[in-house]
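Subject: Sanity check before I submit

Could someone independently write out the structure tokens for this chain? I want to compare against mine line by line before I put it in a report. The sequence has 192 residues.
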Amino acid sequence: MFLGLLQFYSKLSLHISCQNVTTNDAFLADYVQKEVVDVLQRWEQVMTAARRGDLRSLEFLLSKRTGLRGRDQYGLTALHVAAIKGHCDAIALLAGSGCMGVECEDVEGHRPLHLAVEGGCADAVDLLLDMGADVHARTKRGATPLQMADTMGYDDISQLLRGRGADEAAAAAGADAQLCIASSSSSSISCA
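---
Independent answer below. Compare away.
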């Protein structure tokens, strides 16, 4: 969405610079630029509020329905950010609002559940599962939440996932090749 707005603005600016600029054209270009900046600022406010677990700001932004469907360069949504930080109230608010599904994926196929596991927050994992997250979800590299929890040494989360139906046989079948967990939310790669 944001990329489309920026591309439109760039084309409009180029078009206006190659033409005889009228006052209306200049006004339109200025208006579009301000709208693009406003949308980007609202999206950044949503991401920042989710990262901090700032419910008051999230509630306000949700009431305005602004910047809620944005993604960063890695495809992360505000729900992904709240999940990795373990902000359960923010997760409930964002997912419960209907603006973001618990199965949304980043560019590498990480869902909020994967990031809650990566963040080591059992309460966030439990909440996402209660909200319908797929306990068997796989990233594009084939990593499941259970594999991630086992690899990262989060025994409490591993037990939670097993108790919620995570299939160890399926996780083991996907682990034939070297398991590398590389999150788009960080620059680290963990291999087992």
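---
OP: Matches mine. For the report I'm noting this point. The CA atoms of residues 151 and 192 lie 6 Å apart.
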